[in-house]
Write a structure and sequence with these properties.
The protein is 69% helix and 9% strand. By secondary structure, it is mainly α. Residues 108-176 are annotated as: Disordered.
Length: 176
């Protein structure tokens, strides 16, 4: 679990650093465009009639930098969305790992409450806690067979067995 989370964290850190780099470029490119526009207007007044070459070159440069600024803005937006997706994925992964850990803890807790002869232990300390805050119910597997109209044809409820689940998945994939 830690390995997967550290990979996602490293990706998020790299994406954030890249976004900060683009934001830095965006900020300074905006300043450069403002300075170039000011310089262009000053020089056009100074040169008056002989501004054809200067005007064309300065407009070409301003268009290039304005396009680059627009491109950077789009990249920043895309990176922001990607970062949000990665953070959401990390949160889902943490939730999934916590759920799996709870299932494993419950499964190992159920195994500890059964003696080697298959009978439940009479030890009071091994009984599940029935307080309303910490009610430990056994995990159950519910199987339903449906017809083509999604109506229940048959159903079966049995105690959860992780080995049985793997066998069921293998059997159902063979049927497909």
């Amino acid at each position: 679990m830690e390995k997967e989370l550290s990979i996602i964290d490293a990706i998020v850190v790299n994406l954030v650093a890249t976004r900060q780099y683009y934001e830095f470029q965006y900020q300074h490119l905006s300043t450069l465009i403002g300075l170039l526009s000011g310089f262009k207007s000053e020089k056009q007044q100074e040169l008056k009639d002989d501004t054809d070459i200067f005007k064309k070159e300065s407009e070409k440069d301003l268009k290039y930098f304005t396009d680059k600024l627009s491109d950077l803005k789009n990249k920043i937006q895309v990176l922001g969305e990607d970062i949000d997706k990665r953070v959401a994925t990390r949160q889902k992964l943490v939730g999934l790992f916590e759920s799996l850990k709870m299932v494993n803890d419950l499964d190992s807790g159920n195994k500890k409450n059964v003696n080697t002869d298959g009978q439940s232990s009479s030890n009071p300390s091994s009984k599940p806690d029935t307080t309303s805050d910490n009610l430990q119910l056994p995990l159950m597997e519910i199987r339903e067979e449906l017809d083509e109209n999604d109506n229940i044809v048959s159903s079966k409820v049995s105690p959860y067995d992780p080995n049985h689940l793997a066998d069921s998945l293998t059997t159902s994939s063979k049927q497909l």
